[in-house]
Amino acid sequence: MELGSDDFLPPPECPVFEPSWAEFRDPLGYIAKIRPIAEKSGICKIRPPADWQPPFAVEVDNFRFTPRIQRLNELEAQTRVKLNYLDQIAKFWEIQGSSLKIPNVERRILDLYSLSKIVVEEGGYEAICKDRRWARVAQRLNYPPGKNIGSLLRSHYERIVYPYEMYQSGANLVQCNTRPFDNEEKDKEYKPHSIPLRQSVQPSKFNSYGRRAKRLQPDPEPTEEDIEKNPELKKLQIYGAGPKMMGLGLMAKDKTLRKKDKDGPECPPTVVVKEESGVDVKVESASPKTFLESKEEIESYVCRMCSRGDEDDKLLLCDGCDDNYHIFCLLPPLPEIPKGVWRCPKCVMAECKRPPEAFGFEQATREYTLQSFGEMADSFKADYFNMPVHMVPTELVEKEFWRLVNSIEEDVTVEYGADIHSKEFGSGFPVSDSKRHLTPEEEEYATSGWNLNVMPVLEQSVLCHINADISGMKVPWLYVGMVFSAFCWHIEDHWSYSINYLHWGEPKTWYGVPSLAAEHLEEVMKKLTPELFDSQPDLLHQLVTLMNPNTLMSHGVPVVRTNQCAGEFVITFPRAYHSGFNQGYNFAEAVNFCTADWLPAGRQCIEHYRRLRRYCVFSHEELICKMAACPEKLDLNLAAAVHKEMFIMVQEERRLRKALLEKGITEAEREAFELLPDDERQCIKCKTTCFLSALACYDCPDGLVCLSHINDLCKCSSSRQYLRYRYTLDELPAMLHKLKVRAESFDTWANKVRVALEVEDGRKRSLEELRALESEARERRFPNSELLQQLKNCLSEAEACVSRALGLVSGQEAGPHRVTGLQMTLAELRAFLDQMNNLPCAMHQIGDVKGILEQVEAYQAEACEALASLPSNPGLLQSLLERGQQLGVEVPEAQQLQRQVEQVRWLDEVKRTLAPSARRGTLAVMRGLLVAGASVAPSSAVDKARAELQELLTIAERWEEKAHLCLEARQKHPPATLEAIIREAENIPVHLPNIQALKEALAKARAWIADVDEIQNGDHYPCLDDLEGLVAVGRDLPVGLEELRQLELQVLTAHSWREKASKTFLKKNSCYTLLEVLCPCADAGSDSTKRSRWMEKELGLYKSDTELLGLSAQDLRDPGSVIVAFKEGEQKEKEGILQLRRTNSAKPSPLASLTTATSATSICVCGQVPAGVGALQCDLCQDWFHGRCVTVPRLLSYPRPSPTSSPLLAWWEWDTKFLCPLCMRSRRPRLETILALLVALQRLPVRLPEGEALQCLTERAISWQGRARQALASEDVTALLGRLAELRQQLQAEPSPEEPPTYPADLASDSLKESSGKDVPKGLVENGDSVTSPEKVATEEGSGKRDLELLSSLLPQLTGPVLELPEATRAPLEELMMEGDLLEVTLDENHSIWQLLQAGQPPNLERIHTLLELEKAERHGSRARGRALERRRRRKVDRGGEADDPAREELEPKRVRSSGPEAEEAQEEDELEEETGGEAPPAPLPTTGSPNTQENQDGLESALGATVDPSAPFSTLTSRLHMSCPQQPPQQQL
């Protein structure tokens, strides 16, 4: 039975070698080294060093090849025998008009070959039937017992096999007891298998090729009419192959007569049925021949059995030989003329006994590239295993391969690109030729011995002496494999070595058998498959036959295996059978090589080929003679091996030529066989390629024979035959002698070397003689033997001794000028002299070394005498020490002399260092002396000096540590303490770095105190920058300074004041500094400059206003410079704003419908052109901005005494004034707040630039206020104010038909704050919003919405102007208004003038409408945020957490959503109130002349101590402020 997929057991692994780099450099040497181990397995694997990775040199795009076709089950020998048997038995039935259908038994195809063989082994059909042993036959076929399978096998044997066996044996078919199935149940046992029949299978879709003969196509199925006419056919359900019972009458319906005659029984046609059902019946028979001839022609036919021609309608004509047979004369007789082609028994026997054709691989018709072949191979493997190719285990592929190879059912076909010539297609290794330039890396691999193009022609290789490029042996072959593609069992040509390298791809699985088991393997294969070897005796040389390794191992053949991965070598040894297959797509390269040890195997191979009559690849005799002709070029081992082979060859040639003479052949002529083609010098008997000699005939010039077959040349007389020879018998011994000299030259040389090294003759050789022996070994290329290595070692040792001796002599001659190196000790000198005396070579330097030894010994005695005398003489010791150094040899007493000299030197150095007059040494010097003293020879003086040094070092380190603590301690010490430390440390005679640093720090502290005294005692208060510099210096000093604390307090107070002033003036996140805000804007005249500077301030790229005023850092220290620059800046600012107003007024209004962006168009702070509804115009610079991008005023937000004090129709009181962020740079605090800052400034003992700028700003504001009050107090203006008061009273007295106005909550809070003049609780007013409780939020939102709706409804009722302002009155007021808007101070007079100017012109309905829309949008957003806040608060309460304070909860979202400077100002005012103790600024003055205004004026005058004249100079204001706040000592300032 065939093996199952799980039955294959992998053989043991072959040896694997991993050479080191040193071993890897000599390929053939390493192979010779591992041969004793690897040869026992037949094959071995070599893994190169990891970094040996040759580049792939094949030109992939140009590489095209045509692969071979391989049907896997035709490769295995036993499977092929079965398939051949099936072919023969199928042909047997085919020529009789029947088609063979192999039955299935127990769900597997019946192995007819095994059945036939087992029947023969069991004694034959008759014996088995007689003994009823069919059950045993079933058991031997591995069928389970107990199912009556034996009877079924008997039935199949009788029907299919037995007729064929009878014909094969020559017996008559009448003896075959062929009978039909006894019943229907028996018929049902025969079921044709579902696998397509091998004989009728079409080539697989993988290719369109088939090796064997064309299979018989299926015959047409019988029609229903045929079945109806034949009752037996209708009765049967399942039919099998084979002859049927006579009388069934299975004839074609359209045939009536067939003429046939032949002696022998007839096989009726076979009726088969499809497997699917028992009704679909098919009669497989061809159309019958009809014979309708005239009566005369019919009478000419005679039956071959009875020799009669009557009853011609019963005559059968054989389609093969045209003989005639009566159907009743055949045995057994036929009931009627059969259908289809019919052959007589004689033709059937002749056809069946025809030998099969020789098996071989077909070549595919498709040409592949590497890419196309790889795609096909990977696709096939992935589809076959249904998984990615790299995930298929090698074990699974191996088992599946042998399952397919052993299967007769599955016909898997693969392709293999084998034996591709590298000379034509290019090697995978880099090759040095003129075709392409190689890189240095490629050049390295191109010359490597492991390059398969190089290895066959290495110096130690035999094949390098063959001139021809033998493809596959000297020239590598390439192999492109796919999964299951295989190479069959074979040995290499001439039994040579082979080496295979896998360049890349999936592994290649190998199987190997050692050479000792080669004949055993051949015997087993011949024994198991004799049918194959009968037809092809040299079958194993055809590389077309596999046999399962398990089968071979079961018969005692040792088999090993290995998986060759990419980058690995596999080597096969001489006559080692090997085979294998590929695991997948890969690329390999292989070549043969021969070494000296192969020569005996090569000679035996030629004898083996002679017996097999196989052609040789090359002439072995020619190879030996060619090497013998140039023995000096041979490697020594190779020369010795060639000599042995040549000797055997010469002896055999003598014997053969002697036999030729005995036969009487005396004619001879010389022939240069190497110049003849191989086919012209081959023995016609054994096919051996002749070289030394051959026998030819004058009368038969077309052939010759070797001298081993002199009787097989021709029948001509011996006198016509003559010898053709290459060398005479005298020339061959001469060649042999040369080889012997070359081979034995090593022995002669070795004898000389042995005598020289062992001094056998008592004479030492000179170095020159030994070098000559080594040179001879190198020139003659002797092997690297142990003797040669001894000679090299001796030479190396002698040359080293000579060099060392010369060094000793030259060192003495150089004296103190010689190069310092490792000196030889006295013991080493004696040993060196002994070494030179023991060497087997003569050296004249020995005398020089002896003289040096005598000098050293004399010096040693003198040194011992000097050391023994005490006290030591330093001069004598030094002199002896210098003499010892000149010797070049280290004497033990010289070390004692050195220690004595060092001791004296150290003591002198200690005395010099501690002398009072010497310069103070450092701690490092002291430590160095102590360390050096530890290595000095001990004595009392040395111990005393070391103790003094240690004590001094301890004291110095203690004071140094104390000074270090003073320098690094967090708590600094006063100068007096440091002075005391320094005074005490000065008494130590050591230089102390920390004490020196302490001195320098103390000197810096004294200089600092002097600077502080100078600043404090000056005529003016010091500047803040100077104080900060002094504080920074004082903090870095490691000295405790009392003045530093005072200065830090003064600087801290100044910083506190500046921070308070910054919070008062600067907006939150302002891009301006306090000094810039307090100074006038000198470049206000240029809109582009002003805008670009504002954008630069936002980006941090700007110049300060102080720089624009022309003030340097030094100018800021001078109050006079600041005042002058400030005055000039005021004038520039005023002129600039007038120019800017004129420029901006000329720009088109964004509210116009035809406004387009031009160079004169306004640009908002966002960088876009403001257009349409929502644009606002600045009242100062007259430029336009988006209302959403800037802070806009709130209508009715200006405080009034009561909610009813001014009706809503008094539109001129509405807060519609808008200043852009470019004009309003600060929060603009009230004058009263500024005066409070000035009072605090007067208490500072420090001068700040911001303070002086604030004084200038205050003077400017007071001056403007005075002028504004004068203007408001004039008769015209007073009358106008009175008129406005009357209008308010009239509007208040008029009853409103509408709902009483409800003012916003913030208006009510402001009115309450103004009317009361007292503080409003902070919980109620913050950020300008009225916050009471969350319950009032909805009421306030509804009230605010109604207010905005009410204001919107009042817009159509607004009329104006309500006052008539003459130009003489308007112009001064407008100028005052402009100057007041430039001030970074809030003044009530500014608002009063604004109301007068507003009342004197029509209401600006567009602006009011824009402000209302903006306020509505803001309130809508605030309302949504308020509702989200309330929901969040309620969720907190529901979760059980404590809800935050409602007022704070409402306050925080308002702060978050406040996005403009107005909201920031409100928040900053609250923060300022917190810092100033909760004091709110005084209530604003609504109109000039009111009681509140007068009270505030009186408060201001009282704060200044006198009535302030608006025209009073700045110095007067300063002096009055100083008088109101008397100066306090600096140390009492906060």
The CA-CA distance between the termini, in Å, is 115 Å
Rg from Cα: 63 Å
Largest sheet: 9 strands, mixed
Which percent bin holds the helix content? Answer: 40-55%
* Sheet/helix structural class: alpha+beta
- Residue stretches low in confidence (pLDDT < 50, at least 5 long) are 1-5, 172-227, 229-299, 1198-1206, 1296-1337, 1442-1466, 1472-1534
The chain-level mean pLDDT equals 74
Number of helices: 51
Question: What is the tally of beta strands?
Answer: 37
What's the SSE blueprint?
Blueprint: E1 16-17, H1 21-24, H2 27-38, E2 43-46, E3 64-65, E4 68-71, H3 77-94, E5 103-105, E6 108-109, H4 112-121, H5 125-131, H6 134-140, H7 149-169, H8 184-189, E7 191-192, H9 224-229, H10 231-235, E8 260-261, E9 270-273, E10 281-284, H11 295-299, E11 315-317, E12 324-326, H12 345-352, E13 362-363, E14 368-369, H13 370-385, H14 394-405, E15 413-421, H15 422-425, H16 440-446, E16 477-481, E17 486-490, E18 497-505, E19 508-513, H17 518-528, H18 530-535, H19 549-554, E20 560-564, E21 569-572, E22 577-582, E23 586-593, H20 599-612, H21 620-629, H22 636-663, E24 668-670, E25 693-697, E26 704-705, E27 721-725, H23 731-758, E28 765-766, H24 767-779, H25 786-814, E29 824-825, H26 826-838, E30 841-842, H27 845-868, H28 874-887, E31 889-890, H29 892-914, E32 921-922, H30 923-934, H31 940-968, H32 975-985, E33 990-991, H33 993-1016, H34 1024-1036, H35 1042-1065, H36 1074-1078, H37 1087-1099, H38 1105-1108, H39 1119-1145, E34 1175-1177, E35 1184-1186, H40 1231-1242, H41 1249-1272, H42 1275-1293, H43 1305-1316, E36 1325-1326, E37 1329-1330, ...
Parallel strand pairs: 1-2, 8-11, 24-27, 28-30, 29-31, 32-33
Antiparallel strand pairs: 2-21, 3-14, 4-13, 4-15, 5-6, 5-7, 9-10, 11-12, 15-16, 16-23, 17-22, 18-21, 18-23, 19-20, 19-22, 25-26, 25-27, 34-35, 36-37
